[in-house]
């Protein structure tokens, strides 16, 4: 045995580690670094050690060799002698280098196929490959390497060096934790590969954590993945153990089973990435707190997630922060515009609160609760008064079910917050409805009503009213009034026009979908005038004065366009103008508006009852058949005596109310019949009416097959007169304008020819036709003989 020892001593190298380096020209630059940092004595004093010696070429890759430190040189020295066959993949080697009070380590990596030995920190940017292993020395062993390794950097920089940890690194910077990691005195980070959150968090939670306002909660999550002590994998004993986190709220459960390490049942797929002040282990999926409500998303946090913090700040600064508070108990739906689309500068200061509350809907509405055309009640009173709240319309587009509130569409799925609130991110801010008077001119179908509004000076009253429903007649609706519309638009009828206009402004809000079914009377802005609203399965109807019954669509209006929202109410358009009961319009008013001066003159001869022209009492209606002035111009009345003129005047008066005619038919001439199946008094067979002249004289009004209406005297040979226009008076009577003057029965008989005159005319026509036939016959015979060459001499 002594012989063996002597043999080993004889084979043992005589040169020390330092001398071996100094004598080998491959390591001259490394030796220069040792001497430059006055480490020669320290290297010579090594009793046993391992040196990873960079060859000269390694320094050619280092552009900062003049900035190396003594610790960087010592980072290549292991205080024990280790042969290459003692390296295994993942082995940690304690070096002679320190960073502060923390000793630095090297990590050994052995490739699977070639068995190459690589040392470094575990990241690609800080590694060196062993070129020649096991260069023996008297006090240790040298392994030449191809890189002069830099010292490990701090945790914040180490994260940036690994591509798999880029997301974790970005979140660290976003959470303002980079400085904490830089100054840490020994941390262990369990970082997730690639995505820190993965699919374990909802999109809204991720967006919140990535927002500026979410950095505090983001830091809480990241600190849940960090321990305040350094734990290399070889520090964990086989089995289960627990380690505390920087956050401190939950500990982490570490399980070692053979070569497998899990943290909270999540597998470690890459371990021991070394840094100057700690170590990083990479997990295969996110490591999040076990408490699923750890984020405790409230309204303000969700606004941060959808980039609507400006909206939240405006609510707070205008005393409306209660809608965002955690302890608010009212159910609300919040329509939140993004920061870049929220331009509050265009909103007057006195409307700011109402405008903000217009984005807060009363009650909570999920998408499944919304219906196309629905009106949602907001918290904004606007100009409606304290009793009413402004509404906002909902539009749902097919087939994608795209939801739109007013004109702003929803950008993403809504977010529910607890049991009381839901937030819809919308494309841009909502705009409060304009005032009723300002909203009307935008609809060209209402131009006549708008003109009436201003002509009657009713605009100011409607503009100042709070909480009104305006039933606005269309232009076509005014044509149904006929002569009455012409009368109302006369300057001298301004007060009457004001009555009519204000009669269409109902006190209270009656949205089409929220008005109760049935009939009820409501007050209007017209003094002492109530109007009847009737909601049925057939539609929404409005009835003023003058309808014969509840089915009289010649008078009763139907809502044809609903729920045009305004700042002080709502507008519905209707197809008939409604008249208040106290409106006084006489037949004289209607005749004056039409300009039938000749008829007014004729009526003076008739010794008429006063009510025929000027009556407004409903107990004694009269209907006047009024020939136009053009019709009078075609008729010679100069031969008539005063008595006959008086009779002629009475002939044109019907002592009854105005017949129910479809004004749409008047003046029309078609090649086909029109029947809307609406109840009318006048049909194609005609309806008989008495004349004021005599009960024996019957006036017949009938509907023409080709369109329009005509009037004739029963039994008279005179052609019928077409009805050109009509107008209803307050008494229930009115005026029918006709295109010719009706003739007294005796005058019609006088104008008829005797029978013998008619017989002579017929005989004369027969003789002329016979002579014409004979001439044609002989002419043809002469022509035929000429063609055959036989001409009679």
Name a few traits of the molecule.
FAS1 domain, FAS1_domain, transmembrane helix, membrane, 27 helices, alpha+beta, 5 domains, 36 strands, Adhesion/Biosynth-related, transmembrane, 793 residues, elongated, disordered N terminus
Overall morphology = elongated
Largest sheet: 7 strands, mixed
Structural class: alpha+beta
Major sheet: arrangement of strands: 2-1-7-6-5-4-3
Discrete helix count? 27
Number of domains: 5
Description:
It comes from Rhizopus delemar (strain RA 99-880 / ATCC MYA-4621 / FGSC 9543 / NRRL 43880). Keywords: Membrane, Transmembrane, Transmembrane helix. One of its GO terms (cellular component) is extracellular space. The strands form six sheets. The chain has a seven-stranded mixed β-sheet with strand order 2-1-7-6-5-4-3. Mean pLDDT is 88; it is low at 1-10 and 669-679. A hairpin with a 2-residue loop joins strand 19 (402-405) and strand 20 (408-409). The protein is built from 27 helices and 36 strands. The chain has five domains: 17-145, Roll (FAS1 domain), CATH 2.30.180; 159-295, FAS1 domain; 304-425, FAS1 domain (Roll), CATH 2.30.180.10; 436-574, FAS1 domain (Roll), CATH 2.30.180.10; 587-671 and 681-745, FAS1 domain (Roll). Helix content is 27%, strand content 25%. Helix 10 crosses helix 12 (299-305). It has 793 residues and is an alpha+beta fold.
């Amino acid at each position: 045995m002594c012989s063996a020892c002597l043999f080993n001593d004889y084979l043992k190298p005589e040169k020390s580690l330092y001398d071996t380096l100094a004598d080998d020209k491959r390591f001259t630059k490394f030796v220069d670094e040792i001497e430059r940092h006055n480490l020669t004595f320290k290297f010579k004093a090594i009793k046993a050690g391992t040196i990873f010696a960079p060859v000269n070429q390694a320094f050619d890759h280092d552009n900062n060799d003049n900035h190396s430190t003594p610790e960087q040189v010592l980072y290549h020295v292991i205080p024990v002698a280790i042969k290459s066959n003692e390296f295994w993949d993942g082995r940690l080697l304690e070096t002679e280098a320190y960073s502060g009070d923390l000793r630095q380590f090297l990590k050994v990596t052995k490739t699977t196929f070639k068995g190459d030995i690589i040392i470094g920190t575990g990241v690609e940017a800080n590694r060196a490959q062993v070129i020649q292993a096991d260069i023996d020395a008297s006090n240790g062993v040298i392994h030449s390497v191809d890189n002069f390794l830099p010292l490990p950097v701090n945790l914040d920089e180490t994260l940036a060096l690994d591509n798999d940890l880029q997301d974790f690194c970005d979140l660290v910077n976003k959470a303002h934790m980079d400085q904490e990691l830089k100054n840490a005195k020994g941390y262990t980070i369990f970082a997730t590969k690639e995505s820190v959150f993965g699919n374990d968090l909802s999109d809204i939670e991720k967006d919140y954590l990535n927002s500026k306002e979410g950095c505090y909660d983001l830091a809480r999550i990241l600190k849940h993945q960090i321990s305040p002590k350094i734990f290399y994998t070889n520090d964990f004993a086989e089995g289960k153990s627990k380690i505390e986190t920087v956050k401190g709220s939950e500990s982490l459960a570490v399980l070692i089973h053979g070569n497998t390490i899990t943290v909270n049942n999540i597998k470690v797929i890459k371990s021991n990435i070394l840094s100057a002040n700690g170590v990083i282990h990479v997990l295969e999926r996110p490591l999040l707190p076990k408490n699923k409500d750890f984020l405790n998303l409230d309204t303000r946090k969700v606004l941060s997630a959808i980039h609507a913090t400006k909206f939240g700040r405006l609510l707070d600064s205008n005393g409306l922060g209660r809608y965002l508070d955690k302890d608010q108990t009212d159910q609300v739906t919040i329509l939140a515009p993004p920061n870049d689309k929220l331009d509050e500068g265009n909103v007057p200061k006195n409307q700011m609160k109402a405008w903000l509350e217009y984005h807060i809907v009363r009650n909570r509405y999920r998408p499944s609760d919304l219906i196309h055309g629905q009106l949602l009640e907001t918290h904004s009173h606007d100009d409606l008064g304290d009793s009413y709240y402004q509404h906002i319309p909902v539009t749902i587009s097919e087939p994608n079910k795209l939801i739109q509130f007013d004109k702003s569409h929803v950008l993403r799925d809504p977010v529910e917050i607890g049991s009381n609130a839901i937030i819809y991110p919308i494309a841009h801010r909502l705009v409060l409805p304009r005032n009723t008077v300002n909203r009307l001119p935008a609809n060209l179908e209402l131009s006549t009503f708008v003109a009436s509004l201003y002509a009657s000076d009713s605009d100011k009253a409607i503009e100042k009213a709070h909480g009104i429903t305006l039933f606005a007649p269309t232009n076509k609706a005014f044509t149904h009034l006929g002569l009455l519309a012409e009368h109302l638009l006369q300057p001298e009828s301004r007060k009457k026009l004001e009555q009519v206009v204000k009669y269409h402004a109902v006190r209270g809000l009656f949205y089409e979908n929220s008005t109760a079914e049935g009939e009820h009377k409501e007050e209007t802005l017209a003094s002492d005038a109530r109007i009847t609203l009737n909601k049925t399965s057939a539609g929404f109807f409005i009835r003023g004065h003058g309808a014969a019954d509840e089915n009289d669509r010649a008078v009763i209006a139907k809502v044809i366009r609903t729920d045009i929202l305004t700042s002080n109410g709502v507008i519905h358009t209707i197809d008939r103008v409604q008249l208040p009961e106290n409106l006084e319009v006489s037949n004289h008013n209607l005749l004056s508006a039409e300009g039938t001066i000749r008829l007014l003159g004729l009526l003076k001869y008739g010794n008429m009852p006063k009510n025929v022209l000027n009556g407004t009492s409903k107990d004694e209606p009269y209907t006047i058949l009024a020939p136009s002035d053009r019709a009078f111009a075609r008729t010679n009345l100069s031969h008539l005596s005063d008595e006959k003129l008086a009779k002629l005047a009475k002939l044109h008066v019907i002592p009854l109310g105005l017949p129910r005619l479809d004004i749409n038919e008047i003046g029309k001439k078609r090649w086909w019949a029109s029947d809307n199946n609406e109840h009318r008094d006048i049909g194609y067979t005609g309806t008989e009416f008495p004349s004021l002249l005599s009960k024996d004289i019957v006036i017949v009004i009938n509907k023409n097959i080709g369109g329009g209406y005509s009037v004739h005297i029963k039994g008279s040979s005179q052609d019928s007169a077409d009805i050109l226009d009509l107008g209803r008076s307050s008494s229930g009577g009115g005026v029918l304008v006709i295109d010719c003057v009706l003739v007294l029965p005796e005058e019609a008989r006088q104008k008829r020819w005797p029978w013998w005159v008619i017989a002579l005319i017929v005989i004369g026509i027969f003789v002329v036709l016979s002579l014409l036939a004979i001439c044609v016959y002989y002419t043809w015979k002469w022509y035929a003989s000429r063609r055959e060459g036989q001409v009679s001499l």
